[in-house]
Amino acid sequence: MNAALDLRILTTPQELFAAAAEEVVHAATEAVVQRGRFTIALSGGSTPKSLYTLLATNARNAVPWEHTFFFWGDERYVPPTDPESNYRMVEESMLSKVPVPAGNVFRVAAESPDAAAAAESYEQTLKTFFTLEGGQFPRFDLILLGMGPDGHCASLFPASAGLQEKSRLVIANWVEKFKTSRITFTLPVLNAARCVAFLVSGTYKASALRAVLESDAPGEQYPSKLVRPTDGRLIWLVDRAAASELTGKA
Ligand code: 6PG
Fold first, then answer.
1. Which regions of the chain are under pLDDT 50?
2. Which residues, 6 or more positions from 171, have their beta carbon under 8 angstroms from its beta carbon?
3. Whole-model pTM?
4. What is the spatial distance between Cα 143 and Cα 150, in angstroms, rounded to a whole number?
5. 109, 116, 201, 222: which has the fewest C-beta neighbours closer than 10 Å?
6. Of the candidates 50, 59, 66, 56, the residue with the CA atom closest to the CA atom of residue 98
7. Best residue among 155, 196, 205, 237 to mutate for probing ligand 1, ranked by most atoms within 8 Å of CB
8. pLDDT tens digits, residue range 203-248?
9. DSSP letter string, 65-93
10. Is the CB of residue 148 below 6 angstroms from any atom belonging to ligand 1?
């Protein structure tokens, strides 16, 4: 049974990031108590940077860094030193400032000369870490996602081949509009999570958010619609600007 929608509209971006930090701390605490570790897949892009900064400052003492294991839901096909790198953004805004063991951080080796090889290697990293057998998907405690103004999430863009993937965990998905591949989790991995939390801020995302939450447009057109955890929670943390076109039908 797919997850019920938990839509939270926060007045300002600051309140959005504070609510997101609370959700991360709550999920982390619960996971460590119940399973001894917290597995989180991070989102890239610009929106979550303020959340990562908050976790490294105000919420720093509430996060069980030693028991937290970091992964990336997607990565740009660039080296970790590149300004476009999602790993670099997270390293600079959070990981370099907190006591997380280096062995707890699993970045995508996007400097690889072959994007498909980088995806395969990251897939193997997931299989080993989660001790998966054939056909199994990793069950992350929390996956953070952003949403693009076109309704994409992770690097699953509208009408891209990656949306059809049913068995792989990580793929190199060709993104026509950027004329490059992106390394990304597939939908089965996103939908196997215990909890998925979307962070969406800004007026320029309002029409996509309405289309995702309130329209019957196909998921092929708005991939964020296809994220419905099979046995987990789905949380939408949005600010008032992003929610400005919602009619309450969600
Ligand atoms: C990335 C992301 C991507 C992002 C959206 C929203 O690598 O870019 O993982 O899915 O979440 O593009 O990006 P912004 O937060 O920058 O609007």
1. 1
2. 119, 162, 165, 183, 184, 186
3. 0.97
4. 20
5. 116
6. 56
7. 155
8. 999 999 999 999 999 999 999 999 999 999 999 999 999 999 999 8
9. GGGEEEEESEEESS-TTSTT-HHHHHHHH
10. yes
